[in-house]
Amino acid sequence: MTNDMADDKSKASIKEQINQNLKRVYDQALNEDVPDRFKDLLAQLRAKEGGK
Predict the structure, then answer these.
(1) pTM over 0.85
(2) Is the four-CA dihedral 4, 10, 13, 19 of positive or negative sign?
(3) How far is CA 7 from CA 12, 19, 42, in A?
(4) In whole angstroms, how far apart are CA 44 and each of 21, 34, 39, 41, 48?
(5) How far apart are CA 19 and CA 28, in angstroms?
(6) What is the DSSP string of 26-51?
(7) Other CB atoms closer than 10 Å to residue 11's CB: what's the count?
(8) Which residue range(s) make up the domain with 35?
(9) How many structural domains compose the chain?
(10) What percentage of residues in the chain have a pLDDT greater than 90?
(11) Across all residues in the chain, what is the average pLDDT?
(12) How many C-beta atoms surround the C-beta of residue 25 within 10 A?
């Protein structure tokens, strides 16, 4: 039974590391600048919507 408890703790530790890494990557992605190409496309869309 102690092996099961150790496995559970190990799995919980791994899950926590995965959660932390996913949060870190997500936060980094949110802080990235929007590529110029996307900004240009958005500007084109806004111009078309304004022209109607």
Answers:
(1) no
(2) negative
(3) 8, 18, 50
(4) 36, 15, 9, 5, 6
(5) 14
(6) HHHHHHSPPPHHHHHHHHHHHHHHHH
(7) 10
(8) 2-51
(9) 1
(10) 75
(11) 90
(12) 10
Task: Tell me the C-alpha to C-alpha distance, in Å, between residue 5 and each of 2, 22, 27, 35, 47.
Answer: 5, 26, 33, 48, 61
Q: Which of 22, 20, 2, 25 is nearest to 10 (CA)?
A: 2
Instruction: Give SS3 for 20.
Output: helix
**Token code pair at residue 49:** 């919507």
Task: Give 3's pLDDT tier (boundaries 50, 70, 90).
Answer: confident
Reading the block at residue 44, the tokens are: 């084109």
Alpha-carbon distance of 15 to 17, in angstroms, equals 5
